[in-house]
Amino acid sequence: MAKQELSKREWLDKAEAYCAKSEHCAADVRRKLYEWSAPTDLFDGIEESLYKNDFLNDARFCRAYVHDKVEYQRWGQLKIQAGLRALGLPESEIHKSLDEIDEKTYFDNLRALMTSRRGDPEEKKLRFLAQRGFTFEEIQKQK
Question: From first to last of its 143 residues, what are the pLDDT tens digits of the chain?
Fold first, then answer.
């Protein structure tokens, strides 16, 4: 049985349902539309409609992304910034979101990561923390 072609409205409904489940960015939606084999000529219109109806919101996505990466994955600002840039989000929103990081949680995470690597040689510990996105200055401040 051949796959039934969906209308533009049905593709939009599908994208809205996807966005309603959790916070996503435009790159996530485009990737999902591609996976679903949606016609590429509909991508721009669907994206525009999702922004217009507040299913997509760059500021909200950046805040959620930053919060989750700090809170659950214990990432540093450099790695978070790189992740947001890779998704094509506006620099202004990236910087606003990074400025809202709770410093106590951020540095508690850094200290916990440093403690977890207590037995490692200094060079290995620094490399690990750098891969997590912490700057050398942040690391030195916590010693």
Answer: 334 588 999 999 999 999 999 999 999 999 999 999 999 999 999 999 999 999 999 999 999 999 999 999 999 999 999 999 999 999 999 999 999 999 999 999 999 999 999 999 999 999 999 999 999 999 999 87
User: Using CA atoms, how far apart are residues 99 and 39, in angstroms rounded to an integer?
Assistant: 38
Q: Dihedral angle at the C-alpha atoms of 103, 104, 109, 115, nearest 10 degrees?
A: 130
Burial annotation 98-133 (CB, 10 A radius, 16+ → b, else e): beebeeeebeebbeebbeebeeeeeeebbeebeebb
Question: Do residues 100 and 66 lie in contact, with contact meaning Cβ atoms separated by under 8 Å?
Answer: yes
Distance between CA atoms of residues 46 and 26, nearest Å: 10
pTM for the whole thing?
Answer: 0.91
> Can you read off the two tokens belonging to residue 109?
């995470």
Q: Delimit the domains of the chain by residue range.
A: 7-56, 60-143
In this structure, are residues 56 and 69 in contact, taking their beta carbons and an 8 Å threshold? no
- What's the burial of 80, exposed, middle or buried (CB within 10 Å: 0-12/13-18/19+)? buried
